[in-house]
Amino acid sequence: MSTVATYPSFSGRLAWFSNPTLARFMRHKLAVLGVVMITLLVLACVFGPYLLHYTDLSIDIRNRFSPPLTGNHYLGTDALGRDTAARLLNAGRISLTVGFFAMLISTLIGTLIGVVAGYYRGWIGAALMRFVDAFLSFPSVFLVLVLAAFIKPSPTMITLIIAVTSWMEISRIVEAEIRSLRERDFTLAARMVGASHRWIMFRELVPNAIGPIIVAATLTIANAILLEAYISFLGYGIQPPLPSWGNMLNAAQQYLGNAPWLAIIPGLAITLAVTSFNFIGDGLRDALDGRSDLK
Amino acid sequence: MPQYILNRLGQSAVVLVLVSLIGFIVLNLAPGGPMSQFALNPGMSQAELDRIAEQMGLKRPLMVQYFEWFTRLFIGDWGHSFRDGRPVLSVIAGHLPATLLLMGTATVLSVIVGTWVGVLGAVRRYSVFDTLATVGAMVALSIPTFWFGLVAIFLFSLHLGWLPAGNMYTIGDRSLGDYATHLILPVAVLALVNVAIWSRYMRSATLDVIDQDFVRTARAKGLPYRRVLTHHVIRNALLPMITLAGLQIPTILGGALVTETVFTWPGMGRLFLDSLGYSDYPVIMGILMFSAILVLLGNLLADLLVGVADPRVRLG
């Protein structure tokens, strides 16, 4: 073990194929599978709609409720005769985009609060962490639903609502990480050469905490996709005719008995996307944690 | 220890104040705020609306309103439902037993199954069972609960006709067996995620314990492996799980809400959604505050219990 570089490499000096972090990630078969699945899913959602015979809004009224694999409707049609495959892929664009941007925003908020709380400790840190605790005391589903019910839903608003209710985990993780990093010698060195607080926080500490942040961010996408699906399923999220995986399930609920594929297919898509992100997160955790080599 | 309890209580109090602040802001963020119950009434003139707002004290500064609302929470006056005028606390109390029944059953089930799966996975590390349990837990965590509920209803009620599709009892038949058959599907759906979480943590907690000296000593004394597991390993591995149980309360509560909506279970989750539909803000706020208090109390209790259960943990 001692011959292998012990630093989780953000030095960028190693060629990519000999990068130990990448090597550790590649060893994690499920994580690699996750990357492959997400890549395929994104490609399908981006280019798939152009390859189908129908758009997500075209109505084929004579073929309502056709089961999968009838004619050119590969995944069947819904109550209005709209093509499930076209809707699924267009819904994927929305759901994945909402998940991705919600992750981006909540990671920013979470990191910012975590860094400041961890760096300043004292009463600022304590106050910020109590604030985090307060947000964590509400089951996030409740908070998201209240906000979504009050605010006129649009994809942008839904993204923001999910983001402002899912940053707490990240700030907890970052706070703990920063608290230990700020005691290390390099922080002391930075302070000695006269670096400002802001420089130390964002140029010294955050880059060193990037591993856990990336892991948490990946898991946040998974959760954001689940949250979006749930509130859209209840009718408070993405509004039809704009399709999302969640609101496809809302419409499918009442036809569960005679057209079960309408409910099963979008659910499988959600499960696939969320599982993949969870696998990737798990693989990243092992890969970015240099100590995992010792096990 | 008393010092620690005081500290911890103080922290919880601060969090509670913040929780109430967030709640109050959210309530006032609502379109129309507390006046929205009259917004749809065409017989009301602006002058009347103003008068009511004056009477309800809504013309005073927000800070004053907040303090009054907050102090009223303590004397049990949580406002009245817009829908039927009943006090919020009694509305919540009416729906609480159903949720507690669902959550309680699911929690007990998932603790038992999760402990078993976690310990077995740790004992037979990297075996087929362990791998399956690990992958299974990951997938279980990724399945949307509400969708899993729909699939379960489709399979077991619509397709096979074995179990009822929703509700807590059949009208006219409220026997114990009837409750039980109605419980099976929602509990199974709610427990799935919690078994996954619990078994993952239990596995790593067991792995932390299983290589320690006192376990080796127990084995060396010649104790049967089974007894070492139950009396030495599991006992110690369960200690950190007390904290986890406290931290899991929001997840279980949120999961119960999701499950209740799919199975039309007449609990707090159902009440919450109905209140959202009616814009019944006092009840919505009440449920938000109530669940936050429940979570805070749970965390506090879990922290104190760890100290009682594990003499090595010196709180303070």
TrEMBL record, chain A:
Domain named ABC transmembrane type-1: residues: 92-281
Compartment(s) where it occurs, according to its Swiss-Prot or TrEMBL record: Cell membrane
Family annotation (SUPFAM superfamilies): MetI-like (SSF161098)
Main localisation: membrane
Keywords: Cell membrane, Membrane, Transmembrane, Transmembrane helix, Transport
Membrane topology, record value: Multi-pass membrane protein
Matches recorded under Gene3D superfamilies: MetI-like
Residues spanning the membrane: 30-52, 98-119, 131-151, 209-238, 258-281
Pfam families per the UniProt record, alphabetical: BPD_transp_1 (PF00528), OppC_N (PF12911)
Family per record: Belongs to the binding-protein-dependent transport system permease family.
The protein's name: ABC transporter permease
Record organism: Pseudomonas typographi
TrEMBL record, chain B:
Entry-linked Gene3D superfamilies: MetI-like
UniProt keyword annotations, A-Z: Cell membrane, Membrane, Transmembrane, Transmembrane helix, Transport
Keyword Cell membrane found: yes
Xref: InterPro entries: BPD_transp_1_N, MetI-like, MetI-like_sf
Domain ABC transmembrane type-1: 96-306
TM helices/strands, residue ranges: 12-30, 100-123, 135-159, 179-198, 237-263, 283-306
Record's bilayer topology term: Multi-pass membrane protein
Subcellular location: Cell membrane
A Pfam family it matches: BPD_transp_1
Family: Belongs to the binding-protein-dependent transport system permease family. OppBC subfamily.
Protein name: ABC transporter permease
Organism: Pseudomonas typographi
